[in-house]
């Protein structure tokens, strides 16, 4: 079956079964490899993307139920104009191995879109399902706080 998807502002037609997870559509059909496969059961957050403005786990989201524009890490900012959360991530040296980072950043961007000044507890609650084997959780929290300040200053 053919499906039409808007991903990072571009419309794509894909001819795939409706039960194919969005993760594999993004990676294998569209070549957007920033979204990572982690666990395959929506438990680790490495595959997090935004669908219709909401952070979702793409490894368990069938193509046939995708409703709204999909934003991946590639669409969050550009090399010349990174999003505030991406700039804060770099400033705090959050990434070590880096594998989970696209999912972490996409989850954090969703948090900041809905809560422009989160507390430590609110950050922990929003980010709890995004796992980092390197344990950079204190840096993640600090980067989210700094990104919130940057976004407030940018207006």
Automatic annotation (TrEMBL):
Name-wise, this protein is Oxidoreductase
Question: Boundaries of each 2Fe-2S ferredoxin-type domain copy?
Answer: 1-76
Gene3D superfamilies, per database record: 3.10.20.30, [2Fe-2S]-binding domain
Q: Which InterPro entries match?
A: 2Fe-2S-bd, 2Fe-2S-bd_dom_sf, 2Fe-2S_ferredoxin-like_sf, 2Fe-2S_ferredoxin-type, 2Fe2S_fd_BS, Beta-grasp_dom_sf, Diverse_Oxidoreductases
Instruction: List the PANTHER family hit by this protein, alphabetically.
Output: BLR6218 PROTEIN (PTHR44379:SF2), OXIDOREDUCTASE WITH IRON-SULFUR SUBUNIT (PTHR44379)
Q: Which residues form the signal peptide?
A: none
Q: Which PROSITE patterns match?
A: 2FE2S_FER_1, 2FE2S_FER_2
Task: Cite the Pfam families for this sequence.
Answer: Fer2, Fer2_2
Supply the alphabetized keyword list.
2Fe-2S, Iron, Iron-sulfur, Metal-binding, Oxidoreductase
What CDD domains does the annotation carry?
fer2 (cd00207)
